[in-house]
Description:
Layout: H1 7-14, E1 26-34, H2 39-50, E2 53-57, E3 61-66, E4 69-75, E5 79-87, E6 105-116, E7 132-136, E8 141-149, E9 155-161, H3 166-187, H4 189-212, H5 220-265, E10 268-269, H6 276-368, H7 379-402
Parallel strand pairs: 6-9
Antiparallel strand pairs: 1-5, 1-6, 2-3, 3-4, 4-5, 7-8, 7-10, 8-9
Helix pairs in contact: 3-5, 4-5, 4-6, 5-6, 6-7
Amino acid sequence: MIEHPLRRALDAETHARPSVAVSAPATVFHLALTGVSSPETELDARVSAMGGKFLHSTDRQAVCETPSGRLKWERHSEFITWTLFVEGALHEALPPPWWSEFGGECVASLEVVIAPGEDAEVALAERRQELAQSSVSGGFATVQSDFRIGKSGRTLIKVALKGDDPARFGRLIRRLIELETYRSMALLALPVAQEALRALDQLESDLRSVSGGMPAVSDNAADAQLLTDLTTLAARLERVRCDVSFRLGASDAYAALFAQRIVELREERIEGSERISVFLNRRFAPAMATCASLTRRLDAAGLRIDRISALLRTRVDVAVERQNSALLTSMNERAAAQLRLQQAVEGLSVFAIAYYLTGLLERPLAALGEYWPWLDAPLIPALIAIAAVASIGLGVRRLKKELPAPQP
Length: 408
């Protein structure tokens, strides 16, 4: 049996990005970074400098044991994540000095503080006015956060466990981390969409001016200028579309992952508290709606340009057909005039030939008149002329009938 060359890779994809089992109390520090030039080199250098060792490593993820705790590195399509699991007393859980020295631009920075049982009274270090709280995973844990960036530069999330299952807890932490990371990555499209919407507003205004300035009667100069304006608008629209298409597409994918992680949390409402999903979607959903609106408006603007271009093409085609019709009419008139002239020339030719033929016969008649005097009668030349005209006319008519008809 021959194994498919992708079988092993597809099997590995099923088991990619496993959770790290963690026992409470613990603190998890998480970073999501974009713009990392050489992530594998940085990973090797970091682990070597810390005196850590690799427990598991692939080209997309690695788990290392360090003096500070277990370190997990993951490579995604657009960003790199570092997650440090520090187990032990909560008041001692501080990120090591090297934690702020990673390369790239930080998109998300989280501090997830976990405490077991009823002793999970971990106060948020920042404002508590808008605090979201939910019971998750069928009552296995309570999650609380204001989802604000604190003075430390990290977003603090408090988790209170009501059970003892390190593997299950690791899956919960992974969902919480991915929830915030994918939300941040999805929201990267919002500033891009807002800027593109301003450019699109101006483009739509120019499109209204162009369409409103279309003259009622076709004019070659006006149609040429209109075509130039439409081409310019179409090029501007495509530039906007190219600038935002990747970011909007990625945002849709991240938003879908965010929604999936919300479902996987299996939230339950805590009396007197706002659920995490409601809290986050209050601004996340309008932001995604803005991005979706940009996509729809780009498509609508493209359709309007296509419709105006089709209208212009139709009008130009009608004008060309009208010109062709006028040209054909003029050609028909010239052909009719040429036919009448030809017929006139043919008639004159018959009489001219008859005239010359009669002139040629005068001398023989004069000579024969010496022998037959009756040939000198005035009626004879007249009859000869009539016969010549008739015979030549009939001959020309018969010749025209025998000639093939001209092809159109």
